[in-house]
Design a protein that fits this description.
Layout (H helix, E strand, L loop, with lengths): L1 E8 L6 E3 L5 E8 L6 E9 L7 E4 L3 E2 L6 E2 L10 E10 L11 E5 L11 E3 L12 E9 L3 E11 L1 E6 L2 E2 L3 E2 L11 E7 L7 E10 L1 H4 L1 E2 L5 E2 L7 E10 L4 E5 L5 E4 L2 E5 L3 E5 L18 E2 L1 E4 L5 E3 L5 E7 L3 E4 L5 E17 L6 E7 L1 E2 L5 E2 L9 E5 L6 E3 L6 E10 L9 E8 L5 E5 L2 H17 E2 L1 E2 L12 H14 L3 H14 L36 H13 L2 H21 L31 H22 L3 H22 L11 H9 L8 H14 L8 H4 L2 H6 L4 H9 L6 H6 L35 H8 L2 E3 L8 E4 L9 E8 L2 E10 L2 E8 L4 E7 L4 E3 L2 E6 L2 E6 L2 E8 L3
Parallel strand pairs: 2-9, 16-27, 24-34, 42-46
Antiparallel strand pairs: 1-3, 3-7, 4-5, 4-6, 4-8, 8-9, 10-26, 11-17, 11-22, 12-16, 12-20, 13-14, 13-17, 15-28, 18-19, 20-21, 22-25, 23-24, 28-37, 29-30, 30-35, 30-36, 30-37, 31-34, 31-36, 32-33, 38-43, 39-40, 41-42, 43-44, 44-45, 45-50, 46-49, 47-48, 48-49
Amino acid sequence: MLKVVDIRCEYRVNPVGVFTEKPRFSWKIETDKNKLEQTAYAIEVAQDKDFSVFLWQSGKVNSRQSLLITYEGKALASSTKYYWRVKIWDNQGEESSWGDTAFFISALFSNTEWKGYFISGEDADSRASSAGTLVRKEFTLSKDIKSALLYAGAKGVYEAYLNGAKVGDYVLTPGFTEYQHRLLFQTYDITDRVTKGANALGFLVGPGWYKGDLAGWLNYRGIYGNRTAVIAQIRVEYSDGTVELIASDDTWKRSNAPVTYSELYHGEHYDARLEQPGWDKPGFADGSWKPVYVESKDLGALKPQDGVPVKEQEYFKPREIITTPQGDRVIDFGQNISGWVRFKVSGKAGDKVRIRHAEVLDAAGNFYTENLRTAKQTNEYILKGSGVETYAPHLTFQGFRYVAVDEYPGEIKKENFEAVAIYSDIRSAGIFSCSHPKINQFISNVRWSMKDNFVDIPTDCPQRDERLGWTGDAQIFVRAASYLMETAPFFRKWLRDLAASQYPDGQVPHVVPDVLNGISQGDARITQDAGACAWGDVAVVAPWTIYTYFGDKELLAEQYPSMKKWVEYIHGVSEKGVLWNTGFQFGDWVALDAKEGSYFGATPNDLSATAYYAYSTSLLAKCAAILGKDDDAKKYTKLREDIGEAYKNEFFSPRGRLVAPTQTAHILSLVFDLTPAEYKNRTIAALAALLAENDNHLTTGFLGTAYILRALQENGRIDLAYDLLLKEDYPSWLYQINKGATTIWEHWDGLKPDGTMWSPDMNSFNHYAYGAVCDWIFSVMGGIDTDRDKIGFAHSIIHPCPGGGINWAETQYESGYGLLAARWEINGGNITIKVTIPPNTTASVTLPKAGPGTINGTSFVKADGGASAVLGSGTYSFTYPFGG
């Protein structure tokens, strides 16, 4: 049996609004045969689902490639539905049938195709207003309809309504981008929503990221503009082949919305008494509505959506309702999430519901909001008095586990409340479980911090007055993220904003989109807005990681100029081009070896900066070679050698002592291959000694924590790595679990052992950075990794490394080729290892502590850490004695 399954275009199933004229196609293979490889494929793309009018017939292409194959047919048109299918041949002489027919719908490829303008429901200078507005247009369609597409974007955030119902299931559209360069629009298939005759289209628009409060510690708003606006265009193709466009222009009308206040940080106020029933339906009496303003005819920044939408994803019923010692009525939903509360309520007109959101309760069990800083996170709903009313916010979101119900008519009952988790619609990838329940909870916490902070951009936290795309957090976490989810389409969009925001000299902003550029910080901790090591290095590290995990060479090529600009910036500001000892650095941020009251760890900035400079340069050299840029590959390979020599001379004594006595200094020197071979034993021994000085606890911050387990394991001290991972007292990962955490904290001691809190100035309980070590759990404990020379899991490394008293672990990873899985279990004196390798791939399987020979019919040869064999696709099981 040979079958093509999971057919995707640009990572999505039947996508609407494909942003490129050269889309890429991927598929997986279903088979009942082992060691199967695809030997050839054929792709057909047509204008009709009967495949009578072809745009591309690839013919039989002899290739194993089944990921991201670029369309090479006739030029595609905007606003068109295309159909495609694929068939394959395998190495065992079988030819598949054509796979299921898939489709994609193209977006508008050129802004010249827009007939609409940005229109606003606000006055010229509405910078101070946080109210929502409504705009609407009635239109008549005179013929039978073949298809209809809606294109919509906004300066602000919007919800679209057509003939009485919301269009689509996206939320917080059009998302957060570098608006002056990239303002995205969405594409919706509304064929089944419009009718011959009268129709009505309307929009609810609010401040969002465009005009609302951002970077709350700066008390700044209106960063991108002083009023909201929306742009829309409906393209209707009639059955007779003619086309009609309905576009936003000065004939539309505007009115105030029942959303009287909406801010991302502060929440939403909704007065249901101000609703205008039927405003989004034809025939509504809009005589009192005013004409809209044509806000802008400049469409230069308008781009089709190139990321993944944010949607409602998961739902939670209250775990319990409590009354705090201070008398607050509080609902505990049991999980810290990003999203909102949807509730039902009955009462008379004018009654109010008021709820506040928080992550934690304090030591006394009271509702704790100090760590939100200026963020209010408060939603208010005023009843219209018409039976059971249901409400959830429209244009904002909150980060919370607990909700204080300050006002509510009637009894507060569990069945009337639910928490809604929202996050970008990224496909799940990796699953891990083991015999240690607290490690399983830790993985859950990391996953939830990722979900909660992947709301269109990779944020630092989802609750306080910040929620920005901090580049350092993303750089540290991108590898772990790529184990947990299929991050490629998410990061593609964000990296395009990074490239757009990059300074002319190559500096990368601390946050993307760059809301800090040119703004006076008023904070001694931050002295400039760009160019810090580990933060700016995301420009190199993220594209490389996405390439290695998903095989997206196109993304690598697109980002290469940005990567090169960053490394060249460092080269220009470094001493003799090799030692980076200039400018502001965050360094090992919030490390435990920092001085009292400081956020800066004790590792010298020039050491960590030069280490990251070496790391990015090495990756850039690899990328140049992959992209066929041979001169660059030679140049940056040589530069990396020079940086390494300078690092040795500057930071190691002649006898091999690292001059900085910090854990992070030793970790970075080891994992970035900056420790000369003759000094490695001394360096790892020194790291072990530094751990011992702290009773085998870490003292690392952002930079060291992500790599500490890897530094130990790769240098023969996996025992120490497991010891660190499994510690439960402060400071440790499992300490947070014991304190009831359901997400990852910003600080090791966010909640101190005595029950008091870390400083509320910077104390998020939903920060994924310290969860970066889950990539070690997947790759070392779980034993699944991708080969850096055969990227995207075309060839996998399966090498589980048991330890720490854990007696079984299971890892599953849904790669672009299919399910890759490994399970090991120690029982008595034996270990059983089961692996699943997806079709069209191979894997190097290493059995830990095994000797060479034949095990369960497979021949293994001696390898580091055990015995190894290269296996084709299929499921295998190996049982052998496991001693010591």
